[in-house]
Design brief:
The chain has 7 helices and 9 strands. By secondary structure, it is α/β, with parallel strands linked by helices. The chain has one domain: 3-Layer(aba) Sandwich (Rossmann fold). It has a 6-stranded mixed beta sheet with strand order 5-6-7-3-8-9, with helices on both faces. A 3-stranded antiparallel beta sheet has the order 2-1-4, with no helix packed on it. The protein is globular and about 50 Å long. The two termini are about 30 Å apart. The model has no long low-confidence stretch (mean pLDDT about 90). Bound molecules: adenosine-5'-triphosphate. Adenosine-5'-triphosphate binds next to helix 1. This is ABC transporter ATP-binding protein.
Length: about 240
């Protein structure tokens, strides 16, 4: 679904952030990117979405090498960017308005999704009236409503407290089989990356290392206490330590 080949990129008058890095994401996969602050994770998303153009290398989405990559992905930036003057329902309907679809016809389907996202009772509320977890779920649902199969999520749970984050993980793992999406996910949180992902890319200085997560699905958050999970976490910590 996404293939990046020998990507090189540098901001003006700076040393390259990426030097010939390659990666791919297959249909239906959940892939995380972990890296220290400033390693270039958000820049990588800006390159994938076409907000920046590579100096060298290729980015293909569904096999196509096109400049209009933003139109091919659902992108959820770090800040949720919900419009404060619109209700939850109207925020979620926004992608349909942008693509000029008939919003009235889609409302029953969207109400079903609002239920699955635990937002049915707040569809008429405004973003300021929601908890952090609810805001993130609303922004995530809006990203899904773009109808794109590839979702780029930039630290969607980064600002949440640990209990809310745990609830979000539990909720997302429960929903994952049903979503039928492909996700590329940025996080700083090793536990989150292992729990949610099929594979993890460790973004280091000018390098990208791939780690497979061989934990079976469906998963629950309880898995973090299992020895397989703990071993995986230790291995990742060692790789990050070696990289530094
Ligand atoms: N527009 C820009 N012009 C010049 N340098 C930039 C620009 N945007 C980002 N950078 C630099 O590029 C590097 C990577 O930034 P980026 O935001 O992609 O990192 P990140 O891994 O997403 O960090 P964080 O985890 O803190 O969000 C940093 O050194 C940053 O200062």
């Amino acid at each position: 679904m996404l293939s990046i080949e020998k990507l090189t990129y540098a901001f003006e008058n700076a040393r390259p952030i990426f030097q010939k890095i390659s990666m791919d994401v297959k249909v239906g996969e959940f892939v995380s990117i972990i890296g220290a602050s400033g390693s270039g994770k958000s820049t990588l998303f800006q390159l994938i979405t076409g907000l920046l153009e590579p100096d060298q290398g290729e980015i293909r989405i569904n096999g196509e090498n096109t400049e209009n990559r933003l139109g091919k992905v659902g992108y959820m930036p770090q800040k949720d960017l919900l419009l404060p003057w619109r209700t939850v329902l109207d925020n979620v309907l926004l992608p349909l308005e942008v693509s000029k679809e008939n919003r009235q016809r889609k409302i029953p389907q969207i109400r079903e999704w609002l239920g699955r996202f635990g937002l049915a009772e707040v569809e008429k509320s405004y973003p300021d009236e929601l908890s952090g977890g609810m805001r993130q779920r609303a922004a995530f649902l809006r990203t899904i409503m773009t109808g794109k199969d590839l979702l780029l999520l930039d630290e969607p749970f980064g600002a949440l407290d640990s209990l809310t984050k745990r609830n979000m993980h539990s909720w997302l793992l429960g929903l994952w089989g049903e979503l039928q999406k492909t996700v590329l996910f940025i996080t700083h949180d090793l536990e989150e990356a292992i729990l949610l992902s099929d594979r993890i890319y460790l973004l280091g200085r000018e390098s990208l290392q791939e780690v497979k997560v061989s934990l079976s699905r469906p998963r629950s958050t309880e898995i973090i206490y299992q020895s397989e999970f703990i071993t995986m976490r230790q291995e990742l910590e060692r790789l990050i330590h070696d990289e530094n």
